[in-house]
Specification:
The chain has about 230 residues and is α/β, with parallel strands linked by helices. The chain has helices spanning about 40-50, 75-80, 95-105, 110-125, 140-150, 170-185, 195-205, and strands at about 1-10, 15-25, 30-35, 55-60, 65, 80-85, 160, 190-195, 205-210, 215-220. Bound molecules: adenosine-5'-diphosphate (ADP) (2 copies).
Amino acid sequence: MLQFDQVSKSYPGGFVALERINFRIAKGEMVFLTGHSGAGKSTILKLISMIERPSTGRVMINNIDLSRLKRSQIPYVRRDVGIIYQNHRLLMNHTVFDNVALPLVIEGFTGKEMVKRVHAALDKVGLLDKQRCLPQTLSGGEQQRVGIARAVVNKPPLLLADEPTGNLDPELSRDIMRVFEAFNQVGVSVLVATHDLGLIARMRYRTLTLKQGRMINDGLMPAPGVL
Ligand code: ADP
Ligand code: ADP
C-alpha cells in the first residue's frame, strides 16, 4: 500500500528533516509513528500527502512513485489518502453534514449519491443524529469524529492521522482509536502519528520510532528510552 525507499528530505536552507527512511505498510495494516517533537513525523505525513516531495529516494502509494507524478495527477492519487488533523480543521460556520460532504462536492458528487455517502460516513463515526449541528455545538471528541467522517467519505484505502488525540483526554482518545480500528478491520491501512506513549502501549500495534530524522525502531513498541 505504502512504501518509503531510502527517503531523505532536506528543507530549504539545508536542514535535514529525514535521512534514508525505509518502511512498508501493507494493505489493511495499522501502524503508529512516534518520536519527539521535531523528529520528522509531520514531514513523513507531508510526503505521503504530497504536500512535500522527497529530496532523494522514493515514496510509493500502490506502486505509484509519487516523485514521478505530474502535478495534474496529484489530485487523483491524493484521493486514496484520507487525512485527519489534530485540530480537525472543520468549517465552523457550516453544518456537520456540509463539512463531511465537502470532499465529495469537490469531486463532483451531487444529489442522492452524495447524501447517501455522507450519511454512511457519519453513521460509521456514530454522529448521524448530529448532521444538522454546527461544529461548535459539539464536544471535542465529536468534532474529531466529524474530521474522521470527512476523511473517509470517499473511502480512501489509506488513512493518515496527525496527533488525532492530541487535545483529548485518555478515554476520548481510546474512543477515537476504536473508530480507526473499525476502519482498519474492514481493510483500510491506518498510519497514526502520535507522541502519546500511553496510547501506543495500550494498543500494541506496530510502531515506527523516529529520532532526529532517522528511523531507530520498527516493532511492537517504541525504542526504549527515546521519549
Ligand atoms: P515532528 O512532526 O516530528 O515534530 P517535523 O517533521 O514537523 O517533526 O519537523 C522535523 C524537522 O524539520 C524539525 O526540526 C522542523 O523544524 C524542520 N522543518 C519542518 N518543516 C520545515 C520547513 N518547512 N522548513 C524548514 N524546516 C522545517
Ligand atoms: P505541526 O504540529 O503541524 O508540525 P508546527 O508548528 O511544527 O506544526 O509547524 C507548522 C508549520 O511550519 C508546518 O507546515 C511546518 O512544516 C513548518 N515548519 C516547522 N518547522 C519549521 C522551520 N524550522 N522552518 C520553517 N517552517 C517550519
